[in-house]
């Protein structure tokens, strides 16, 4: 590796917008290849590590799990069927997000009803929110 292009772990962490511990974690998880080491033992990275870290961070921001990100990284190297596989995984993630949004909307609507029903004063045993939380089938 050319010493002009060699980057320290701190430098790639800053460039990619992640913590140093995150980089070490991704290395242990196999999402980021083990870097070369200088004779001093310090890690030495190139610019491709920054790109890979940004990919991982953005995929996490979109809700992909580490295992799904591992699959996306493998598919990104597949010149023949990779794009189809990436699309399938992204569509599956989108469906999971839509399901989660629907569930959160249901929870929100139920909580809004309880808040509306609660007068905000009186005895705790008369509070509809507390009653609903204590119900066995809630």
How many H/I helices? 6
Major β-sheet profile:
2 strands, antiparallel
Nearest-integer average pLDDT:
88
Strand residue content: under 5%
What sort of overall outline do the alpha carbons produce when their principal axes are compared? elongated
Rg, Cα atoms, Å: 24 Å
What is the structural class? mainly alpha
Count all strands and give the number: 2
Residue stretches low in confidence (pLDDT < 50, at least 5 long) are: none
> How much helicity do the residues have?
55-70%
Q: Strand-and-helix sequence, N→C?
A: HHEEHHHH
Give, in spatial order, the strands making up the sheet with the most strands.
1-2
List the helices and strands and how they pair.
Blueprint: H1 9-16, H2 20-29, E1 36-37, E2 43-44, H3 47-61, H4 66-76, H5 82-117, H6 128-134
Antiparallel strand pairs: 1-2
Helix pairs in contact: 1-3, 4-5
Notable features of this structure?
single chain; 138 residues; mainly alpha; 2 strands; MerR_fam; MerR-type_HTH_dom; DNA-binding; transcription regulation; MerR family copper efflux transcriptional regulator
